[in-house]
């Protein structure tokens, strides 16, 4: 039985007693009760909608738990997981139970909700995506799937970025949708900014990596401006990573050399038993009157800029050294069939650790992010723990910027 038929069967059971008195058009049983309705409170249709919502919301929690668990177990790939998201859209009680059942990408290996894009990927099998470049509009779109040839119209848009040229560098504004790149929009998730030469980049996140910073900031706002309602909500940018490309002034042969300092991820995350920061929801509590907590000098603290103890040393990623192929007369990396076109943009990132740090040889050789070309404007992106989809996408965007002094 399909999911739609399953849900309609439950709806028929719960609505059997009132169906003779109320004739509803198909689909009203799935209306989210938190949404606004066009019907006025006194209109004849509003009471019917409220009765219908109450019946969906008052289903026994044990029944809801069993339903959503079965849906979660059978939906193992996109677009099938749309049914899981549909469960969370029925009403508040369904949404809370769905959030408790659906695990993070690190544990289940799937991207279900938008916040999954900010959470670390799975530890074992990487999440495979592809990036489509649109030269005319200077936009880049990240899709869920192996490639556009295999997934076609079933590809799920995860993130989109737009390149904005500035006098001193380039900005890549990253959004949840492909047609709204405004920083004041609730679809804005962060940006990538480069210097003039395109050799150094900073990844800015719209929210801090630790929820405690956000909570403290909200409390500071309430204490400073008690009883005052902010007229509008503005976004903040938190420097979560730095990317640098090595200069190639002598024009020596070889691929680009890059290094990524992940300020928001401690190196202890890749150690045995270590964990990476995992946000549970998008925070939007910072308004125009509030600001992140300030340090003793009155400056905004950088995310991850704490004492240089073993627990707070940031994770450093470096590109994996390729080997020279005598027969092909080129530098080669083993992309395991995910890259088919030679390009200077292709790279694989691994952890760069010191001998004193407790990281095994296996973890040091594990490819955390790989990016490569498979068509004229199609590129694959595979990432895993401890990077998130947003961080991996931002790192890959840095490869699209022009770097004449690095090649």
Automatic annotation (TrEMBL):
Xref: Pfam families: F-box-like, Tub
Comp. bias (Basic residues): 19-28
Source superkingdom: Eukaryota
Occurrences of domain Tubby C-terminal (ranges): 117-402
Listed Low complexity bias regions: 36-47
Stretches the record annotates as Disordered: 19-51
F-box domain segment(s): 56-100
InterPro entries the record matches: F-box-like_dom_sf, F-box_dom, Tubby-like_C, Tubby_C, Tubby_C_CS
UniProt record similarity statement: Belongs to the TUB family.
UniProt protein name: Tubby-like F-box protein 5
Organism, scientific name: Gossypium arboreum
Taxonomic lineage from the root: Eukaryota, Viridiplantae, Streptophyta, Embryophyta, Tracheophyta
């Amino acid at each position: 039985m399909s999911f739609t038929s399953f849900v309609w069967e439950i709806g028929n059971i719960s609505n059997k007693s009132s169906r003779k008195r109320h004739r509803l058009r198909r689909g009203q049983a799935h209306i989210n009760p938190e949404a606004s309705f066009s019907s006025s409170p006194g209109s004849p249709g509003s009471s019917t909608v409220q009765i219908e919502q109450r019946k969906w919301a008052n289903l026994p929690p044990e029944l809801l738990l069993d339903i959503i668990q079965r849906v979660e177990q059978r939906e193992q790939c996109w677009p099938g997981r749309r049914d899981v998201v549909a469960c969370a859209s029925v009403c508040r009680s369904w949404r809370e139970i769905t959030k408790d059942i659906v695990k993070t990408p690190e544990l289940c290996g799937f991207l279900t909700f938008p916040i999954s894009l900010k959470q670390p990927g799975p530890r074992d099998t990487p999440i495979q995506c592809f990036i489509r470049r649109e030269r005319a509009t200077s936009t880049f779109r990240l899709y869920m799937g192996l490639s556009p040839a295999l997934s076609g119209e079933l590809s799920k848009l995860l993130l989109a970025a737009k390149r904005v040229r500035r006098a001193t560098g380039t900005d890549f504004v990253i959004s949840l949708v492909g047609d709204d790149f405004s920083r004041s929009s609730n679809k804005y998730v962060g940006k990538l900014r480069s210097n003039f030469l395109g050799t150094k980049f900073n990844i800015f996140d719209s929210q801090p990596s630790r929820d405690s910073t956000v909570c403290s900031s909200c409390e500071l706002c309430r204490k400073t401006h008690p009883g005052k309602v902010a007229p509008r909500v503005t976004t903040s940018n938190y420097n979560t990573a730095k990317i640098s490309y090595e200069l190639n002034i002598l024009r020596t042969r070889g691929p680009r050399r890059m290094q990524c300092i992940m300020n928001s991820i401690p190196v202890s995350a890749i150690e045995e038993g270590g964990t990476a920061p995992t946000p549970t929801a998008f925070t939007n509590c910072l308004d125009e009157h509030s600001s992140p907590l300030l340090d003793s000098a009155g400056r905004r603290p950088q995310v991850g800029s704490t004492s240089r103890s073993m627990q707070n040393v940031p994770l450093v990623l470096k590109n994996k050294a390729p080997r020279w192929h005598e027969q092909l007369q080129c530098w080669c990396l083993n992309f395991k069939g995910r890259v088919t076109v030679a390009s200077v943009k292709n790279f694989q990132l691994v952890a760069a650790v010191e001998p004193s740090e407790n990281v095994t040889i296996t973890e040091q050789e594990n490819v955390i992010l790989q990016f490569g070309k498979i068509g004229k404007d199609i590129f694959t992106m595979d990432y895993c723990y401890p990077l998130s989809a947003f961080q991996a996408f931002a790192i890959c965007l840095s490869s699209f910027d022009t770097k004449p002094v690095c090649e």
